[in-house]
Amino acid sequence: MKSQDLIATSLNAALYAGFGYLTYLGVFTPVIGVVRFWPAVIIPAVFANLFGPKVGGVGAAIGIFISDMLIHGNALLSLLVGVTSNFIGFYLVGYIGQKNLKESFILTSGVFGLILAFISFWLLTQGYLDSFTSYLFIVICIFSVVLALIINYIWPDWRSVGIGSIIGLSVGSAIIGLGVWAFSQFFILPSGETLLPFHASFLWFIWTYATEIPFLIILLPPMLKACYMAFPRLKSNKKH
């Protein structure tokens, strides 16, 4: 890594851990199992797009480990699930976001939105979710997709950022859902739960994606635009 990347990675990790911990200490911090409401995802997403996937992924991995140690203190759970999901997820956010993709992400957005809405509805019909929670997740997913499509038409320059956010967060959320479920089969979660049913992995997947994608879709483009205006040379990182 170049010195600039090391500094950016350190700053990314510090801001991610610090802001995440402050969110945890705040008044509105809903949790499902051990998976928290986490608006701090916007921080490594910005760094991943500005400085590249390694800076985004490594900084996010270090930052989530620090915050996990402060919040629940289970190093094994953090390394197996939190660190892994954050590194891979934000690496993809930066890798795809820096590409100059020509394709529209209408299909990508629509497919993920429909999949998540279908999973939410299935959990509702099986009695695994109450109607309010299920419909709330469906509304959030649809809202995010519609907003992404609007941004695609109004600001097509942010197309790659949108695709990267959707794919990266989807992969990261899937790792969290499956990882926490798998961990519960062998160990006790910080919440005291163990041997959780497999459908719990879908709940965590939907919860993570549905509560975090609005921050990436709404806040990421204007924040990147402001950074590019202040530091034009950062835009040279974008690949064709």
Integer tally of domains: 1
What gyration radius follows from the Cα positions, in whole Å?
A: 17 Å
Strand coverage percent: under 5%
Would you list the SSEs in sequence order as H and E?
HEEHHHHHHH
Distance between the termini: 22 Å
Question: Gist?
Answer:
Helices cover 74% and strands 2% of the residues.
Description:
By secondary structure, this protein is mostly helical. 74% of the residues lie in helices and 2% in strands. Strand 1 and strand 2 form a beta hairpin. Helix 5 runs antiparallel to helix 6. The protein is globular, with a radius of gyration of 17 Å. The two termini are 22 Å apart.
What is the secondary structure topology, with strand pairs?
Layout: H1 3-25, E1 31-32, E2 35-36, H2 42-51, H3 53-71, H4 75-97, H5 106-125, H6 131-154, H7 159-184, H8 199-230
Antiparallel strand pairs: 1-2
Which key phrases capture this entry?
single chain, two-stranded antiparallel ribbon, 8 helices, mainly alpha, 240 residues, 2 strands
